[in-house]
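Entry 14. Ran structure prediction on the chain below.
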Amino acid sequence: MSAAFTPVPRQAWVRALTAHPPEKLKALAEALAAGHEVRLKSLPQAGLGLLTLTDGAFHEPYYLGEFPLSSCSVELSLSDGRTAAGGAHVMADDAELARSLAILDAVLAARLPGWGEVSSQIDAGATLRAGEDRRRRAMLAATRVDFAMLNNAGGEEDTDGN
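Output, structure tokens:
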């Protein structure tokens, strides 16, 4: 299968891929990894990440909350001696999904057999995410409030002498 390399930058591959159902991604990763040796560079892990910000006044860190985070790093070895490394961090409580995304990352980054299918999934996912982003921006624009109108209303009441 000859396909053009995806124009989506590598740091956005996980976001684009996760627009698809996890089962589809896991099945694709398993199909592409079949016949290759998959070595885990870091074990697939699922846990919580902490969202940390720095206080503006005292410059001390404080924690806004937790979010689910899974990660994995793999190395694929092909029978012809080629190797490819891939990794993924995903905001989900699913270590197996992180492993699958790491495999897909390695396949596409090294253009291993099947990379065209991964590229197609990324392009389709990026299109889905772009549509979601447009809808979110439209909703945000629809809820925008012009507070300048409130100041004018307050000024009119003050002219009555109250």
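The longest strand covers residues 37-54. Will compare against last week's run tomorrow.
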